Amino acid sequence: MMSRRALLSLSALSAMAAACSPLGALNGLNRLTPGDGGVKQIVDGAAFGPDPRQTLEIWAPKGATGPLPVLVFFYGGSWNSGLRDGYGFAARALAARGFLVVVPDYRLVPQVRWPGFVEDGAAALKWVAANIAAHGGDPARVAVMGHSAGAHIALLLALDRRWGVADWIKAAVGLAGPYDFLPFVAGGAADAALGNAPDLNDTQPIHFARGDAPPLLLLHGLEDTTVLPRNSTRLANAVNDLGGRAEVKLYSGIGHVGILLGLSKPFRGKAPVLADASNFLLKYLTL
After folding, report:
1. Backbone angles phi, psi at 39, to 5 degrees
2. Which ranges in 107-248 belong to alpha helices (H)?
3. Pick the residue with more confidence: 22 or 239?
4. DSSP 8-state secondary structure symbol assigned to residue 181
5. Where does the pLDDT of residue 29 fall: very low under 50, low under 70, confident under 90, or very high at 90 and above?
6. Nearest Cα to Cα of residue 125 among 188, 173, 74, 80
7. Which residues form the signal peptide (predicted)?
């Protein structure tokens, strides 16, 4: 039989889930689950551009000394939805592993189409390069990470030098990212976001595979039917064939959202997403 405390917690979570967005409910559940202590938000709403969506937040381990490795996390949402406020569970988890975690918002469809959201990602990284030292981060040790559309943005920034930030990125992690997904489904989210590009190949991270790319870790769930796992295996193969360093980890029983939930405390037992990502990043960001 459940304890009174457990029943009260379940009642609170039920009310939270009914009243809030799914990510809001997840953040609430995450806060009620032990672990990831000693983390604080140190910046909320710093502007890296003039648009209201061009803002970011920063999370840090409490009491950390010395410049910390920096991780810029891009959330997903089909390039047409998302708010950084919903991703506190991911930022907390990664900051607890010793990173200074930056979570930017970016402009979305229909306000912008290609390449507006990638330009915003690059602008956020340029802000990091200019300002992160003042917040305890090391601008010489910056990595990127993203989920779904956020992984698409992160990997384009890491691979395609036209955005002016690729050479600053020391490592990149993608969760369930679309990297090689032509042709677009007519009228679908990718078509709406990227279909205006003069050359559609420019929207594909695999088009920019190179042997001197930063080390890549591409994580994917084998049950993902939204973004097929072949996106990760094909990009990794392309980079490795050119002499680069790319690893793939595929998780059985994990779908498109489940791989993101693996960063949250209540669902970490489903797949070692957090451990795999943080161990990889620390390997390449440790002095």
Report:
1. -125, 145
2. 116-131, 149-159, 189-194, 230-241
3. 239
4. -
5. low
6. 74
7. 1-17
Residues 6+ apart with CB under 8 A from 150: 73, 74, 75, 76, 77, 82, 177
Nearest to 88 by CA among 44, 27, 34: 27
Which tokens hold the place of 42?
């140190």
Amino acid letter, 178? P
**Does residue 193 contact residue 78 with C-beta atoms inside 8 Å?**
yes
| Single pTM value for the model | 0.90
Amino acid at 147: H
Contact 162, 169 (CB under 8 A): no
Alpha-carbon gap, residue 275 to 103, rounded angstroms: 19
Helix axes 88-95, 22-32, angle to 10 degrees: 40
Give the pLDDT score at 21.
55
Task: Tell the CATH superfamily of the 37-285 domain.
Answer: Alpha/Beta hydrolase fold, catalytic domain (3.40.50.1820)
| Residue whose structure tokens are 């998780």 | 251
CATH 3.40.50.1820 domain extents, the chain? 37-285
The model's pLDDT over 57-116, given as tens digits with 9 standing for 90+, comes to 999 999 888 899 999 999 999 999 999 999 999 999 999 999 999 999 999 999 999 999
- Contact of 68 with 100, CB cutoff 8 Å: yes
